[in-house]
Amino acid sequence: MSFSVASTSYGAGMDMISNGLKKMISGVAAIFLTMTTAHANDSNNDALLTDYSQQAAWQAIQTFLPKPMHFTAEYRPRESWWSWQGHTIHLDRFDNPSAPYRVILLHGVGTNGRQMSMITGGPLSRRGFETIALDLPGYGVTRVNPDAVVTYNTWVDLVSDFIDAEKARDPRPIVLYGLSAGGMLAWHVAARNRQVAGVVGMTFLDQREQVVRDATARNWFMSRVGGLSANLAAPTPFGKMKMPMWMTSKMSTLVNNEAALKVFLDDPTSAGNWVTIRFLDSYLNYQPAQEPEDFDTCPVLLTQPEKDAWTPLALSQPFMARLKKVPQKTVMLGNAGHYPLEQPGLQQMEDAITDFINSLPAKP
């Protein structure tokens, strides 16, 4: 009889726990649905932003950069657009038809194409290269196809197709540069598109590795529980819900300047952006076309900020060590943060990329 009572009590207890978990999950889902709806309503005004001439954020950010890097009426990228699968992709171009190489710039999950143009595109154009910075779907002023489901795989497909389109109209070789998550994106693209002549990354983060997830997520809970929850929710209707990137990652370490950080976080086209759970899951679990040990497409350069509080050198070293078939090199950027605003890191980055490109073997 006591066993029966105990069993009944145990069963009742488990039912209470189960019901509690269901209510908690439903409550969290309701909160995120409310947040997503509110974000969608707030973002209606963002659709009015058609190009960067109307945006104040990048102009505020450039005030934290050395004066020679500031854009002017004479020194600034040409804005253009590229249509791809219903998306209207914004491009920042520093044209140079006589340049021996073109450099395609890829942002990560806390920046956008204009912010790449400011620290890399413009300086490299002054060194004789043509540069093109993309706003990937969900970021910058790119207009997203309303019927599309954007995932990290979408980004890889898009960049690969853009390379094909550029090479079809102009045979000059292409180098990829990526900052933060854009570094691994550049390598993921090169792993499937052999038309890439070189890859430069400011961090190479293999998010399949738990140590990388733990270090780059906002906290242990978001890394372990959040990652698993995203994987379970991604194929369901909940996969379309959006979360702010600052909630999932260490976005507070994007730059080593509190005033500049506030501008980034207040910018919905970069660090203040929201992404779907489906995008997050695809980003964490993306399977490359080949593993690093088999990669033989082109040389790889890591430009590592010395004072990167988000992704220190130790997180990229395991990936770099796995590159066995191509030349690879690491250059440290003195005094620089994750998104570098500081000298001498900015100049060292410009010099390192220039030297890397000029040393590349001839490739069609």
Low-confidence parts: 1-10, 17-48
**The CATH H-level homologous superfamily of the largest domain:** Alpha/Beta hydrolase fold, catalytic domain
Tell me the major beta sheet.
Answer: 8 strands, mixed
Number of domains: 2
Shape: globular
Mean pLDDT: 89
Question: If strands are numbered along the chain, what order do they take across the biggest sheet?
Answer: 1-2-4-3-5-6-9-10
CATH topology of the largest domain: Rossmann fold
Question: Could you give the distance between the termini?
Answer: 83 Å
Report the β-strand fraction as a percent range: 15-25%
Q: How does CATH name the architecture of the largest domain?
A: 3-Layer(aba) Sandwich
Give the H and E element order: HHEEEHEHEHEHHEHHEHEHEH
Number of helices: 12
Radius of gyration: 22 Å
What topology does this entry show?
Blueprint: H1 2-43, H2 57-62, E1 78-84, E2 87-94, E3 102-106, H3 113-126, E4 130-134, H4 152-169, E5 174-179, H5 181-190, E6 196-202, H6 210-216, H7 220-233, E7 242-244, H8 245-248, H9 258-265, E8 274-276, H10 277-285, E9 300-305, H11 313-321, E10 328-333, H12 345-358
Parallel strand pairs: 3-4, 3-5, 5-6, 6-9, 9-10
Antiparallel strand pairs: 1-2, 2-4, 7-8
How would you describe this structure to a colleague?
The chain contains 12 helices and 10 strands. Strands 1-2-4-3-5-6-9-10 form an 8-stranded mixed beta sheet, sandwiched between helices. The N terminus is likely disordered. It has 2 domains: about 50 residues; about 300 residues, 3-Layer(aba) Sandwich (Rossmann fold), CATH 3.40.50. Strand 3, helix 3 and strand 4 form a beta-alpha-beta unit. The chain is α/β, with parallel strands linked by helices.
